[in-house]
Each structure stands twice: as structure tokens, then as C-alpha cells.
Amino acid sequence: AIEKVGSSGLPPMYTELKIVNEDGSDTPPGETGELLIRGPNVLPGYWNRPEANKKIFTEDGFFHTGDAACVDDDGYYYIVDRWKDMFISGGENVYPAEVENAIFQLDGVLENAVVGVPHEKWGEVGRAYVVLKEGSILDEKAIIEHCQTQLARYKIPKQVRMIEELPHNATGKVLKHELPRD
Questions:
Q1: pLDDT digits (tens, 9 = 90+) for 14-40
Q2: 152 within 8 A of 131, measured Cβ to Cβ
Q3: What is the pLDDT of residues 62-99, one digit of tens each?
Q4: Pick from 89, 152, 140, 147: nearest CA to 115
Q5: What separation in angstroms does the CA of 67 have from each of 36, 52, 63?
Q6: Can you name the residues that pair with 129 across neighbouring β-strands?
Q7: Closest to 147 in 3D by CA, of 85, 98, 82
Q8: pLDDT above 80 for 1
Q9: Cβ contact 93:22 at 8 Å
Q10: Is-contact 39 14, C-beta < 8 A?
Q11: Above pLDDT 70, what percent of the chain?
Q12: 20 to 30 A Cα–Cα from 144, which one of 12, 30, 56, 162?
């Protein structure tokens, strides 16, 4: 267990998993793609929604989970982020969860969310929305400087916006689609 910290583990019995690129081809071990699953424990489809089923199932019956994941050489799977949260900056995939984890390491951060926003040169860049703990004196410069020590250059948010609170649904999940992109 210690050797595979962060892993979701091996595939369950009678279940097939695979990780694919955007074009549907399998990814090699260690490369991030979308996790697909097939087996008797997977939902058979949405009730009376054939068009939705065409979108979420491949022709050979794999279900698109919407999770960005990778698998190691030993067959252990790792969930990286939600596939739809990923953005592309300068041709590189950026998974917001990695950036959010780096920002969350700072003592004064209560909560944060990173989204991709349009950028003329890079296509998209990261914008971090940060909620500070009471009494924290962190600012945009401190957060970006911290990220520079933790992340590859293309993953560092180009903008940081301090806000009072992030939008959440009833279960507490951050509603990133409600964060401004302009």
C-alpha cells in the first residue's frame, strides 16, 4: 500500500478499464487520458435517452467516466482530475487538481479552484480563485511565486483572484462552471 500511495488500485473483478487519448487510442502506462470502464457492474445506460447513451458509451461498450487518469506499469490506476476540468495551455494539458494541490500547501489558503481562461498567445492559461483563511496576508504575487517552486512553467496560474467564497452545490462540490472566465 505504501508503494502505491494515491492509487485507486487494480481493476475490480469482472471489470475492464482502459485509458484513452482524445482520439480514442490507448495511452501507454504513465500517460494521462480519460478512464473508460466496461463490465457487469457498470450502468447499462440512461433510461429512455438513446442519444445520451451514444455519447457516453463506445461502440464496444466502454463507459466514459469523465475522469482523467493514468495507469502504472504494474496495472495500478490513479485518478488525476476530471477530464472536463483539464485545459490546454500552449499545447500542454493542465490538470487543475495538481495546481490546486500546490496552492493549498500555503498556510493561509482555505480553499481554491483553478480554471482555464482564454489567452491570445497560449490558447488558455490558468486562473486561480483563492479563498484565504481569516487573517491571512497572502497576495497574488506570493501564490504565483510559490507555484513557481512547485509546478512546471506552463501550469503556473497567470492570474490569481482573491474571493470571499467559492460557489458550491448542496454536497459541497465546487461549481467551477460558475466561476467567471472573462
A1: 999 999 998 889 999 999 999 999 999
A2: no
A3: 999 999 999 999 999 999 888 888 999 999 999 999 99
A4: 89
A5: 8, 18, 11
A6: 113, 161
A7: 98
A8: no
A9: no
A10: yes
A11: 100
A12: 30
Could you tell me the CA-to-CA distances from 86 to 30, 38, 79, 93, 176 in Å, in that order?
A: 17, 23, 13, 7, 12
- pLDDT for the residue numbered 167: 95
CA distances from 63 to 17, 19, 51, 101, 148 (A): 9, 11, 14, 28, 37
Q: How far is CA 33 from the centre of its chain?
A: 11
